[in-house]
Design brief:
2 domains, 60% helix, 5 strands, 5 helices, 5-stranded mixed beta sheet, 284 residues, 14% strand, alpha/beta, elongated, Pyruvate Kinase, Chain: A, domain 1
Length: 284
């Protein structure tokens, strides 16, 4: 049985860890609220931009712009949104497994990875993946700025026929305890199909020139929305992980306290037995 001194030291260590996890949970909860509000505020803009793009791109042939060109997907780019820091449960691991499954369904396809976040960069570097771009600071860099940088590189590669398609993979925020790995095709940009109700816009300048300006903005908007969802998902995952860690620390402190009390009682019993034995020996 561990000594009383070691048990007291372990209890103090676990209690100190519990204070840290509780504080991290509170910080993540406050940041989650702001991140969720930011994602919610961005959705109307993304929805309206998608509606505008559908109206402008209706009936346009794929040859009208390089970003609409459809080719056999022999080489694809994957934009994977991960976190810079850990302590967020299975947030990154679940996404990595989903990316592996996503690639497994496209056997024989050559993939290059553009990754956001230190965790993703370290993961794919260890596996000798082909990294075309990596960016850090997903929580500190403005999403619009980061999205413009990433969209510029991916659209350049697609227009130069260095890739045949580009996909965005990220954790979509559902709730603080649920983040869903989600794929979105970025390139070629999908044009509306079938009978889609479209607004009859008066276009100025003409459709081709407007489409050329709208397409890069549309790709940026998709990435921006995904970044906001990923940030909210990370805070939600971290809050849940720290809450679980705090609960586990409470249970561990209870178990260690019980062991300490048993050890202390055993020590007291031993001392009493020695005293009684000594007294009996003096009588004899």
């Amino acid at each position: 049985m561990p000594s009383l001194k070691s048990l007291r030291k372990r209890i103090a260590t676990v209690r100190s860890t519990q204070q840290i996890t509780r504080a991290m949970k509170m910080v993540a909860a406050a940041r989650l609220r702001r991140a969720h509000e930011a994602a919610e505020r961005a959705r109307p803009y993304a929805s309206k931009l998608a509606e505008l793009f559908a109206s402008v791109a209706a009936g346009v042939e794929p040859e009208a712009h390089p970003l609409l060109a459809r080719r056999p997907e022999r080489r694809i780019d994957l934009l994977v949104l991960t976190s810079d820091r850990g302590l967020c449960g299975g947030y990154n691991a679940n996404l990595f497994r989903y990316v592996a499954s996503f690639l497994g369904e496209r056997g024989g396809t050559e993939a290059a990875v553009a990754v956001v976040g230190r965790k993703g960069f370290e993961y794919y570097r260890r596996r000798s993946a082909r990294l075309i771009v990596h960016r850090l600071g997903i929580l500190t860099t403005p999403p619009a700025q980061l999205a413009a940088d990433l969209a510029g590189e991916l659209t350049r590669r697609f227009a130069a026929e260095e890739s045949d398609a580009a996909y965005l993979l990220y954790n979509r925020f559902r709730s603080a305890i649920s983040q869903v790995p989600t794929p979105t095709r970025l390139l070629p940009v999908a044009t509306p199909e079938g009978d889609v109700p479209l607004v009859d816009y008066i276009l100025e300048p003409e459709r081709g020139a407007l489409l050329a300006r709208l397409l890069p903005r549309y790709v940026e908007a998709l990435i921006t929305q995904a970044l906001l969802e990923a940030v909210a998902s990370e805070h939600g995952a971290r809050m849940t992980a720290m809450d679980n860690a705090t609960t586990n620390a409470t249970e561990m402190i209870g178990s260690l306290t019980l062991s300490m009390n048993r050890a202390r009682q055993a020590a007291i019993t031993k001392e009493l037995m020695e005293i009684v034995s000594g007294a009996e020996a003096l009588k004899g």
